[in-house]
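Exercise: predict the fold of this chain.
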Amino acid sequence: MRNAEISRLFDELADLLEVEGANAFRVRAYRNAARTIESYSGSLTTLAGQGVSALTELPGIGDDLAKKIVTIVNTQRLPQLDEIRQRVPPVVLEMLRIPNLGPKKAAALVDALQIKSLDELRAAAEQDRIASLKGFGAKSQRLILEGLAQPTTTDTRYLISDARSAADPIVADLQQSQAVVQVTLAGSSRRGRETCADLDVIATSADVNAVMDRLAANSSVENVLQRGETKQRVRLFSGIEMDLRVVPEESYGAALVYFTGSKAHNIELRRRAQERGLKINEYGVFRGEERIAGRTEEEVYAAVDLPWIPPELREDRGEFARAEAGTLPELVTLADIRGDLHMHTTATDGKATIREMAEAAKERGLKYIAITDHSKRVSMARGLDAARLRAHWDEIDKVRGEVHGIEILRGVECDILENATMDLDDQVLSEADWVIGVLHYGLKQPRETIMRRLMAAIQNPHVDIIGHPSGRLLTRREGADIDFDEFLKAAADHGVMLEINADPHRLDLDDVHAAAAKDLGIPIVISTDAHSTGGLDLMHYGVQQARRAGLEKADIANTRSFAQFRKLLRRP
């Protein structure tokens, strides 16, 4: 099993134990274990194969947790979790998917109001029966109603990272089959959507049954849900469902276009075909009964007088006009990235030292990094006050002199406080090489307050960039209410860069606002926000987000050489 799948089981166990009122230290132990597993850069399955003692080398993993990990790896099950799932009312599991409603409050609602379904929960909120409960109030009631209105409460969606970590090994395994000629991931995950509801895989083969048998036998597959002549649907142990379609080679490109989507893109593509007296479907491009194209995607687009359009752009957001005019962007690639300017170390909540992060970045071919540990407001992450930050910068200076071949900037991720001031004073910020201004707290403040905070940071001469601007956490938390027209204009006017945070929980800026930033000439920085050396490998998710925004190499500040990048900074 992949690390993310094991981590998810411990997270769910912690949630359900909290619902039952278990000891807080016990709950925290499982949550910490989940984070350790999530941030471990190697394969936990491989480590488990070395025995319990190897697992206990990981921070926070004792004998008991190590034995549970071995059980999960060997059986794809956690018996303790199976037992507690039987005890906890099913509606609680559904309620835990509602943003802003944690395990304790979910349990309290079930106990106090005898809630048995989400419909009953909605009715209780609409009837004003939640606001009067101890520990809730009108605001909690409103947030519950807002959460219930979000599609994630009814249709489970998975982070792009979870979707790809589930799909990519399966696609790689199918590629090893002698029966498979071609196989490619399709669907929204191929387009790089931030979240995915399910997975689509397209393959060609002369032996359909052999391909389906191989998928069914994959260790990641929990159940075969449906099997027909050309389509098979399976549920993976991660919970996500996958459709495999085996098509003739002459239909491969057409099927890949059709099942990659998006729906809006396909509708426009079919409209263009109709204008030319053609019909496009998953089987090919047809003139009457004659198939004239479909073997490759390039053939499909050429049939309607267009060049091939990259999957990330297939959202019907102007890509057809650009393709017709010959102005499709040459999208940025992972190989273009030369620096990573947002990462954390053991000085706050990171798992690796300054030296370890620098060496790991160097191994990945990066030419410069910024060490940007938290400022003091983030107390849960042991954020740095002025004295500790300066001592930390002294350590960075020391590593600078010892690790050659990579430039290291002395940075800080500085909170923009609820009262519209910075978490560190200007004198301290002026001593930094690189300052990221961020919103971590007070994200539910009114738009006017949020904008006052962002404007204060943008206008501060020591702030170089606004990091993960909205503060959202995908599938968990909505971002702040930002007037993006005002925000982007201010950033452009004051020469402040904006971040695409590559952490799959964030991917913030989103693609729409990153495209708007490009139009205003705002330099974008794609950074990982890595909290471990393995976290540096998240960069490709940020690059894909940038590609969805139509960004090219020149739009990304950290594709420049270090000397060129330094010229973009507001400080001398």
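Check your answer against the key: The CA atoms of residues 368 and 407 lie 4 Å apart.
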